[in-house]
Structure formats: C-alpha cells, structure tokens
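thread: overnight batch results

M.L. [08:02]
morning all. the overnight job finished for the chain we discussed friday. pasting input first so we're all looking at the same thing
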Amino acid sequence: MSRTVSYSPAYTLVPTYECFNRCTYCNFRAEPLESSWLTLPFAEKRLQLLQTQGVIEILILSGEVHPQSQRRKAWFQRIYDLCELALALGFLPHTNVGPLSFDEMAKLKQVNVSMGLMLEQLTPSLLKTVHRHAPSKVPALRLQQLEWAGELQIPFTTGLLVGIGESQVDWVETLEAIAGIHSCYHHIQEVILQPHSPGNKQSWDGEVFDTTKMPALIAIARSILPDEIAIQIPPNLVTQPEILLACLEAGATDLGGIGPLDEVNPDFPHLQHQTLTELLAAAGWQLVKRLPVYPQYDNWLPQTLQTAVKHWRFNNFFP
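M.L. [08:03]
and the structure it wrote out:
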C-alpha cells in the first residue's frame, strides 16, 4: 500500500525584489529603488495564462519595504491588490512578505487562505554574522508575528533555514518555540525545514549545508512538533534521491509549493512533476496535490474564502 506525500501546485508572484534587509546568504533581494514593482495588468495577464495549467496556489513573495518608508503603504496595497486579483481569477493566495504590523496581517487575512513567515533561527549570534544588516531578522520580532497570526486565527506556515551558522541546539530551541506558540493558538499548519543552498548572488562564503543531516533534523522536528503540524522539505534543495526518500521515512510529509521557478533559490530548479512522481512511486510513495490551507482550518477563513476553498475541495476531490 502506497504512502502519501503532498505538495501544492503553485506559482509565485513577486511584487518587488527590493529589500531593506541585507542577509549575506540571500539570492533574492535587490537594492531599494532598483527593482521595479509588479504591475496589476502584467500580473493579470500572467495569471490568466495559468488558469488552464493546474495551478492552485498563488504565492505572493516579496522583498521588504521598510516599515517607516513613505512607500510602505503603496507596497502593502500592491500586495493586497495582487491577492484580490488572484482570488478573482480562481486561485488561492498565500502571502509571505516579511514581518507585518498587526493591522496589516488582519487586512491580509481577508484575502489569503493562509500566510507565512520563516523564523529561520532564533539564535541572536546570527545578528553579528549573516543577519548583521537585517533589522527584520531580530528573533523577537519574528516570534511576535507567529503570536499575532495565532491571535488573528490565520493558518500559518513557518520554518527553519539551516546551515547559516547555527548549531543543533539552535534547531531544538527554534522548534520548541514554534511548538510552544502553536500550543496556545493551534494555528501552525506546516513547518519548513530548508537547507541553505548557495547561489550566484550571495556574498556569504560559509560552508555548504550537508544534506545528509536532513533526516536527523526531521526526526528531531517530528519529536518536538505536534503530529498535526506537517513537516515540509523542498525537493529541489534535497537533490539526492536517497536522501529525499530518507527524509520521508524520518517524518517529512509535504514537499511545499512546486512551480516553474523557486524565486528564493533560482539556481535550483524543481524536478519535473512526472520525474518526481516516478521517483517517489518506486519507493512506495504517492505524490498528491493539496490546497494551501489545510482542511482543519477552513472554518477560520472569512466566508468568501471559505466558498472559494469549498469550490476547490468539492470540484477537485481534495480532502
């Protein structure tokens, strides 16, 4: 009998690559004012082309405009408008754009079936190294986002970025923090375990993360996180088939959003769907589609979003 591992058929829209953070491992950001913003007409044309290609999730992924910038309001409005556009064209939006104010999160809840923010690592020592010029990577700020998401009943995705100078003790601390906040609000639907993968744009010259450690990390995560939290790994960053399969055996249950381009890791393309399906099937795993909101959270959504989600579940036989 085959076992199942899920994924979300996704496409990423990037409102802007500009970011006031300067994480030294980043392969995504552009300097503020040096990246044009995605326009709504261009986004609409792109989304219309996707309507017959099996895409469900539209991931809104953005660089960060400083909270005190005069352009912050326009940046947020562009994100909101892109979510509305995606919904109008039949998709389900998921937004991950860095730390937001409580009011910004509350507004985006109205047009997102789920949202996300990576904790990355809670160790403050990284503020002296890879996060030295990244004000929004202060651990307390990111933990606050998880708490606010819980207070607002937003189905939420978070995760760890591993291999950026942290220790195994730091993994445990970060995972325990996620589990602790989840125990209060029960809103974390999945935790991503993402190995840092060097790209062409980063300035950091740290060691490459040894992905043979991934199954052990997953086992640690599974021992700390409640069973209802899915553990997600990106298959384009765990490229050796035997390690990918070992990760599933260790407790990973999801492969995340799979689309034509991983914007955060553009040097690491996803496997073709058929190739991934055959690889998993040979080892007794069945690759199944899912929505960007897990079923236990459907009734947390505003009524209009519940209607959109029900349409996908009942017309496409999703659980």
